[in-house]
Amino acid sequence: MNTDRLAETFVGLADTLVDDFDLLDFLYTLVDRCMELLDVSAVGLMLVDGRGRLTVMASSSEETRLLELFQLQNDQGPCLEAFRTATAVHSADLQTQTERWPRFAPEAVRANFRAVHALPMRLRSDTIGALNLFHTDPGGLDLSDARIGQALVDVATIGLMQVDLGRRREVLVSQLQTALNTRVAVEQAKGILAERHRTTPAEAFTALRSHARRTNRKLTDLANAVIAGETLDRVGTSPPTD
Amino acid sequence: MTLPYDGGLEGLRDALGAYAAAAGRLLDLDCFCEFAGRHLDAAVALSFLGGRSEAAVVAGDLARLAEELQLTVGEGPSGYGFSALGILAVDDLNTAEQQTRWPLFAPAAVEAGVRSLCAVPMRVGAARFGVFVAYFDRPSAVNVSALTDSVLLSAIALDLLLDRLGPTTAGGSAAEKASGMAERIVGDRPEIHQATGMVSAQAHVDLPTALLYLRGRAFADGRVLSELAADVVAGAIRFDAPAAEPP
Predict the structure, then answer these.
(1) How far is CA A44 from CA A87, A117, B190, in A?
(2) CA–CA gap between residue A108 and residue A117 (Å, rounded)
């Protein structure tokens, strides 16, 4: 593990005292860093929405099967348990968990994921969501990855608490609502780009994310810019040249 | 423990339905505003673009005064929802900070009896339809409970508004219909939002119009919105201008 990058990540996640703090972008960063720093095959971050249900806010890939695996966990699964109990939930081999999660476990195994960690995002007495880590190898997720993952999640949520304590929960409600709406705007932007460039929404999103990284812009700012009419070059099936 | 959303949306919908039934009234935007006002102990106003002009539905003197005031002075929370994306909560209008933000509206509103307010944009992602504003006659009324209720109420208001702007989508399971909010988040149905973007680019219309086109088409075809959206995303159905006339 690149410990410099890890330290840098912790500092970055804690630095939320900025005027233009964007919760959704922050969550995308958290997911990206988990993929980079931990030995995992896939990552997804779920937040509670206005209906009290978990919804995927950021994931390491837009592959439908993966997204469905996250959403499935609204009815059962490690994420739901982690969210409800506010404790981490692990399984070293989902193939042995069909009794515990009769729908989720076989679906995960079909999607080639065998090991899972689900880590709660806790804010004092509120649990606002959960981070899902998957591995294709049974026993592929070790406890140190889970501990570091939980530390990243905790630092991230501490970052969300860096506001006037008296108004913290009100600010959180507002931030969550904005993040949920921005997430929808990202999907709308995917559609616009997909139509403009005659690609799939998934391809459009890949282009959006890489453009955001390349130009050092927030993903959500870029999505809003696309909606406002800004064009992106190099959207399509061929990979960017840089 | 989770944030105070659990079951909140369904509970509020049920209470709204019961309120309308008990009063023998149509469950329209007027009825909604009254219900919302009673629930929050506030006066509620909805402003939106109904056709070409801005329209407003208000319940309660305080909301009526505040909305009229904003028309007169040209500033205030109702215009907020059209340009901004986050929720606006004002703890006390009678402070220097608020008088700086709205030098014309704030003092006049305080004089009219408004002390705190909460404005929630009614939107589906970047598709903005209007704004829900709750006006309170006391400072510091916008606590977590009032805020989350305002968010949930604004979602119900948006459902009613979408029905008013275009036909209701037909079909769908009871769960899908009951949870109109399924259209409001990504959740299980990212296709609805992707399709909205695609239709917007195909027909060269803004996102709110694109969503109304989709809803209208789903209604006309007797289909569930998410299924129509999946066809649009797959490229099987297009809404190219000028052939795509709104129903």
Answers:
(1) 17, 11, 16
(2) 13
> What is the ipTM for the molecules in this complex?
0.86
Within B62-201, strands assigned E span: 88-90, 116-124, 127-136
Query: To probe the interface with A, which of B185, B214, B233, B240 has the most A CB atoms within 10 Å?
Result: B185
Smallest CA–CA distance from B119 into chain A, residue: A174
Minimum distance, in Å, between the CA of residue A170 and any CA atom of chain B = 5
List, edge to edge, every strand of the sheet that includes A54-59: A54-59, A42-48, A126-135, A115-123, A89-91
Residue A166 C-alpha from the chain's centroid: 28
Nearest-angstrom CA–CA distance, A50 and A214: 34
Q: Is the peptide bond preceding residue B242 cis, with omega within 30 degrees of 0?
A: yes
Residue B127 in contact with residue B207, Cβ under 8 Å?
yes
In tens, the pLDDT along A51-108 reads 678 888 899 988 777 887 887 887 889 999 999 999 999 999 999 999 999 999 999 9
Task: Chain B: give the shortest CA distance to residue A173, in Å.
Answer: 7
Give B34's strand partners: none
pTM for this prediction: 0.82
Residue A162 burial (CB < 10 Å; 0-12/13-18/19+)? middle
Contacts of B143 in chain A (CB under 8 A): 170
Task: Work out whether strand A54-59 and strand A42-48 pair parallel, antiparallel, or are unpaired.
Answer: antiparallel
Residue B1 binned pLDDT confidence (cut-offs 50, 70, 90):
very low
CA of B72, closest CA in chain A: separation in Å? 29
Would you say the C-alpha torsion B70, B75, B76, B77 has a positive or negative sign?
positive
Residues B56-89 pLDDT 10s = 888 888 999 999 999 899 899 987 655 666 788 9
Q: Which residues of B touch A180 (CB under 8 A)?
A: 185-186
Q: How far apart are CA B74 and CA B223, in angstroms?
A: 42
